[in-house]
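Chapter summary example.
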Amino acid sequence: MARVVVKKVADIAPKIRVKLARDMVRRGKNVESAAKRRIGQAPRRVDTGRLRASIHTSLIFFSGLPAARVGTPVEYSLYVHNGTRYMQANPYLKDALPAMRL
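The structure predicted for these 102 residues follows.
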């Protein structure tokens, strides 16, 4: 009896991981689109649109569990997000995090 239960749980586990991965990607996409909207708000930091276009979501596995990573490879994104002594910060990713709860 115990072997049957363990086998059924083992069969369910991959299905749960697939659903969890899909949910993580969905939540990541919500954060991504909220960050893209936020970057166009005050203080507006859009010149060419390169930073906004480069924000993307990727699925990663952290300790065997799926997670979503939202970010950008653009080198100046940190200065836009955190600001400098000459430029006010526009924390587009930090402000977009509540979108993952939807």
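To summarize the output: The CA atoms of residues 34 and 102 lie 11 Å apart.
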